[in-house]
Write a structure and sequence with these properties.
This protein is α/β, with parallel strands linked by helices and 234 residues long. It is built from 9 helices and 8 strands. It has a single domain, classed as TIM Barrel. Helices cover 44% and strands 17% of the residues. Helix 4 links the parallel strand 3 and strand 4.
């Protein structure tokens, strides 16, 4: 995809985010558009950078390493958004600026050890399985409050909010229910911990406008920006 096309896609997506904010009386500045660059070539990221974007979502440790090296001249920020195996924690601990898929205490402990050894503290979002689908990772809504208490005890992680993937369906009511489940959890956590938990990463290419209407502060857009995903990582 050309640089011009990527810039146009970013502008169109931003306009849709802003319109969704207007429908519910939100400030568009509250919502980040995070381009999800996994499987897309480095030239695509350079095009998005030229359009003003500085943070990108990746979900494969090896691909993150390659892009962080190949694009080091741009000073990009990297958000890891996919399932991470504990034995791959090193890459995220060293290179990521944010981790949006904290889905188990075991993984959190592995990350924490790596981060403390590096003297780093990593912003993180707790993944919620709001749809109940077995193919999706994360804590169930009922597990989240206790999990957050355990996760906040780890010095290397700065737990700032929640992330979810909505149900894989065209039923907008079902999708909206997933997002409102997470916003309700956010309110509960704020009450229990005296504030915080400001980040809600909800919404992808097929449902991001609904997510914004439900309170998302970060939408993760891949195909909407870069086109169809490559069959394998470059």
């Amino acid at each position: 995809m050309t640089e011009t096309a990527i810039a146009a896609n970013l502008a169109a997506a931003r306009a849709r985010i802003d319109a969704a904010c207007a429908r519910v009386g939100r400030d568009p500045e509250e919502v980040e558009l995070l381009p999800v660059s996994k499987t897309h070539p480095q030239d695509a990221l350079r095009a998005a950078h030229a359009a003003g974007y500085r943070r990108f979502g990746e979900s494969r440790p090896q691909e993150l390493e390659a892009k962080a090296s190949g694009l080091a001249d741009l000073g990009l920020g990297w958000v890891f958004i996919g399932h991470l195996q504990s034995n791959k924690a090193r890459v995220v601990a060293e290179l990521a600026d944010e981790f949006q898929a904290l889905d188990s205490l075991r993984l959190a402990q592995a990350l924490d050890r790596r981060l403390q050894a590096l003297g780093r503290r990593l912003p993180a979002l707790v993944q919620v399985n709001s749809s109940g689908e077995p193919t999706k990772g994360g804590f169930t809504p009922d597990e989240v409050p206790a999990a957050v208490r355990d996760l906040r005890a780890l010095d290397g992680l700065d737990v700032r909010g929640l992330m979810t993937l909505a149900a894989n369906t065209d039923d907008e009511d079902a999708v909206r229910a997933c997002f409102t489940t997470v916003t309700a959890l956010q309110a509960r956590l704020r009450d229990e911990h005296g504030g915080g938990f400001d980040a809600l990463s909800m919404g992808m290419s097929g449902d991001f406008e609904v997510a914004v209407e439900c309170g998302s502060t970060c939408v993760r857009l891949g195909t909407t920006i870069f086109g169809a995903r490559a069959l394998s990582a470059p």
